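Support request, please re-run this one:
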Amino acid sequence: MAFEKITEKSSLYNDLDKMSIGELLHSMNQEDQKVPLAVEKALPAIEKLVSEIVPRMKKGGRIFYMGAGTSGRLGVLDASEIPPTFGMPNTLVIGLIAGGEHALRNPVENAEDDFEKGWQELVERNICDKDVVVGIAASGTTPYVIGAMRHARENGILTASVSCNPDTPIAAEADIAIEAIVGPEFVTGSTRLKSGTAQKLVCNMITTITMIKMGRVKGNKMVNMQLSNKKLVDRGTRMIIEELGLEYDKAKDLLLLHGSVKKAVDAYRAENQD
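Re-run finished. Output below.
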């Protein structure tokens, strides 16, 4: 399939400004239902990527998300959730956005058009062949991302792309190309909608399954989560109760003493071995 900017095609819906709120919601929801089906078709590529990430990360490698605009923000968002969810350092999954942190809330003129800047930012962070660069671009044409991926690949670093058009320039720079073809957006060209949702689902899969394979989940529980608020302390306490059968207050004290569910359970079992 030749490169085609499906994300820029006209919406399947006309006269949005004349629709009722109910009609708009129903129509938008109908479009959104296409997203998980598009991601499902990309599962083999996602599986291949995670299978490559895990052994690298076990040797000290990192994931670098690269993107601009909505795509960049999604990478930063996913990266920022790894420390609180899995208790891992914030240096393990890193999100870089064209234009820097200011671009998280404000557009930065021409930032995404700088072909060399992304690679410069990777070099500043001592990128190496144990790392993986994941370029995110709904259109698949962002120079900031393409440049970073091209240089990374030239230096023997694994690259992957996440896009919502087929056979994109970004895919051409990727060892593993993930394409979630969601079709034209509800509002023509607004890739913060279906494309953004698809990219978020893909990022969720990449990091969640990587963390599971890194041993940061036990059963189905976040046993290494950071205890950053009362809700999470209560959740962790109940995990310990379920695992060890302790009273609430004792389980909570044990959790606060050791700082994570896993450490608390391991310490208790070590101290109470027959």
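Residues 230-271 form one domain. Residues 74 and 200 are 6 Å apart (CA to CA).
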